[in-house]
Amino acid sequence: MNCYTIKQAVKGLLFACVLSSFWPIALAQQATVHKSTRQGTYKGYVNSTDSIAQENTLDNVVCTGSRTMRLMKNEPIPIRLIKAKEIEILAPQNFMDLLQYVLPGVEFTKHGSQDRLKMQGFDASSLLFLIDGERISSGMGSDIDFNRINPDDIERIEVLRGASSALYGSNAIGGVINIITRQAKVPLRVGISSMIDNRLDLKETLSIGVKKKFLTSQTSVQYIKDNGYVTQENGSNREINVSGNRIWDISEKLTIAPSQKLQFTLSGRANLRRQLWDPKINYLYHSYDGIAGMRWQFDEKQGIDLSYHYNNYARDSIFPEAPEEANAPVFRQQMHHARAQYNYDFDDIQHLNLGGEYTFDQVASSRLHTTNDGKPKHIQSGVIYAQGILSVFDKVTLSYGGRLDLHSGFGTHYTSRASAMYNPSQQVALRLTYAQGYRAPSMQELYMYFDHMGMFMIHGNEELKPEQSHMISLSTEYKAKETGLMVNTFFNSVNNRIQPLARVTKDERSELLYSNIDGTSRIYGIEIQGQQALPWGLRLRGSYSYTYDWHQVKDKEEHVGLRTTTRPHSALLSLDYNKYFSNDYSLSAFFTLRWMSGFTSSEFDSKDLLTSVTTPGYTTTRMGVEQKILGYLRLNLSIDNLFDYRPKVINTNVLPTPGRTYSATLRLQF
Question: Which is higher by pLDDT, 18 or 457?
Answer without folding.
Answer: 457
